[in-house]
Amino acid sequence: MWYNMLMPVRNTVRCPSPNTYFHVYNRGVEKRQIFLDGEDYEFFLNLLNRRLCTVPTVNKTGKPYPHFRPQVTLLAYCLMPNHFHLVFHQAEDHEALSKLMASISVAYTMYFNRKHKRRGTLFETRFKASAIYDDSYLQHITRYVHLNPREYRTWPHSSYQAYLTPATCPDWLDPQPILSLFHSTASYIRFVDDYQAMHAQLETLKHELANY
Length: 212
Prior knowledge:
Elements: H1 2-6, E1 20-27, H2 38-52, E2 72-80, E3 83-90, H3 96-116, E4 128-132, H4 135-146, H5 160-164, H6 176-179, H7 185-210
Antiparallel strand pairs: 1-3, 1-4, 2-3
Helix pairs in contact: 2-3
């Protein structure tokens, strides 16, 4: 049961539902790395920043960047070397999230191919999205996202640090819809850590039984 609660639901829905939470994820084609250095991670986060900040911004020539706030709000994220996880809320515009992901995917692929001197598709698919319809699953999916890296407490390419210290949260990220489901920030941290401890105990038990 605990395993099923934390694994993402396999779904390729293109986010047609308004006023819905979504877990969006994708990985590199042939499971190749899509982030090779710190600059790559930073560029991807900058794409999120430009499109989801509360006030629209413009480029050096004065042309506005594509902007999707408040129709799309980012609640949590984790970028790993060969994949990413994003948790969004989509408001009334049922096409907004798909347009956002298309914009980010194209811009990042162009950047990555130019920088690393490659051609062709970068991502395995357009993207995958799972709709989230209840608070319990929303809680568990953010925990799953934040626990992706082994060193999740200090992983620099995750929203977990913003959950640890909400005052440091960037403008383009909003953890409050998740934190409001808990009594306090500390209770959310315990929620994440409790699973990590349970998982470690299960792994130890499996190892001991295997050697019995």
